Structure formats: structure tokens, C-alpha cells
Structure prediction request, 175 residues.
Amino acid sequence: MILETSRLILRPFQAEDIGRLAELMANRDFMRFSLGPYTREQTQTVLQKFLSWNQAGLPSQFAVIYRSNNGLIGYCGFLHWHLDGVDEIEIGYRLDPDYWNRGLASEAAQAVRDHAFRDLTLSKVISLIHPDNIASRRVAEKNGMKMKRETVFRGFPTQVFAITREQWLAQHGAG
Prediction:
């Protein structure tokens, strides 16, 4: 499945993406509000997880390709977590800092949200956001999500944003 927006192509990751993904995940700003920059080996583990989800037919992350230069500028898609005793599917996103503040994360996240509800008929998606990550919070809010609760995730205070399929259908006039 490939998702397209006016400025982006979201396609499944490929093993050949390791070089560019490792470059991004070594960037301190790209990995801000996470566990810090990753080594190539740590990035390979992450990429393998994305590829294995794809192979198993599970919702996974998409490589975000910027149409005007065909460059891989980050990822946006689905992550699977067991959070506070419940299995959740998160819409997670990270972009190359050179592409921040252009609305691209919102554009990608909205395409992924629409895919979640229209094509995968998921009942709910969440986004996990560090309280200090104002930009990510704005993306979640533009994605129709509301803050539901606070929790601790991977040792960090975390806000849980969510939207249900019913809320999405109501917002989009579908039925």
C-alpha cells in the first residue's frame, strides 16, 4: 500500500533504506523526545521491525518521500505498543529537521489516519507525545486527536492523544 499526498509519497520501507534511515536516526534533533541518537545497528533493529510487520500484514511505518526531490525525509505510520495493560496502535512520525515547520508531518499523519480508518477499519489510533513536544502535539491536534490521559512510557512522562473511527467518520461526513 502506497499513500500519496500533494507533497509526499508514503511507501513501505525497504531493506535498502538502511543508509538514509541510519543517517536520520543518528541526528540528535530527529531523535529528540526519544531515547537519543541511534547507532546503525540500533537503526537496523528498528528497520527490521518495520519490515517484519509489513511481511506479517500488520500496519507498519511508511517511509516518507518528499516528491520534489524524491528524498526519504523520515517516517510516519503505525507502531504497536502494550500500554497501561491495553494493546494500542500508534500513529508515530519523525521528520528530518530540515523539513520541519512546513506542515509535512501533519500532511503525512492525516494520510495515515485516513488509511487507518478507511482501509484498515481500525477502531482507534493514538499518538504518544512528550509534554514538551509542542510541535508533535500540534500534529496530533490537526489530526483530530484529543488528549485523553497522561502516563509514563519508556520512563518518560507521556500524553496519550486518541481519535476513534466514529469521531473520524463524524468529522469527515462519511457514514
